[in-house]
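task queued by scheduler; priority normal; single chain, no ligands, no partner chains; default sampling; output format set to structure tokens
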Amino acid sequence: MANQIILWRHGQTDWNVANKFQGHTDIPLNDVGQFQAGHAAPLIAAMNPTAIIASDLSRAQSTAHALVKLTGLEVTTDARLRETNCGNWEGLTGDEIRKVDLDNLKEWSLGGDNPAGGIGERRSEVGARGFAAISDFLKDKDNQRLVVATHGGTSRAIIGTYLDLPIPYWSRIGGLSNAQWSILDHSPKGWLLVEHNAGSIPEPVYGEESGAVIPDSVR
């Protein structure tokens, strides 16, 4: 088995419900978020993960530790897996931002690589640091099924980076719901996005017309 990456978004927070930009602000899981993490953890545990790495923010840590309870795996914490630094937007709702920074928000929302919140991070920076964190962990390792407890925006940037997509196309990758996950598989064709915004154990993709079948001769 080649390496596999399971990008797992943290459970719900009160700021998620209020549509506030969280970024680096350390907002904990609410009761629903704790339930979501506990509900998802057995499904991810059933995939037999080999390791867990997580953002240092408490919402990701709490989510990761729901899986620790079932697997006994330790969590390696890496701040490079944090959510995007949203600068002046953190703590504000989308409606509030539109009133004071509409042009910047519009450019960013449509896939621009401008700094979030004026003084925050660019998408390219988030993708680079997330990619580096995972690559460093997987260096010289094989047959890994790595769970990455992280954030929605960071997951999208990591997916875009691993798939070598142009940055403007990253915004076309659908969002991750709270406590849902996406899966990247390494193959002879490179990295493949095989599950996205999933909430159940992945099913095989049947049918040669899907283009998913890789002949044994090239495995």
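post-processing summary
- The longest strand covers residues 190-198.
- The helical segments are 14-17, 31-45, 58-71, 94-109, 123-138, 152-162, 167-170.
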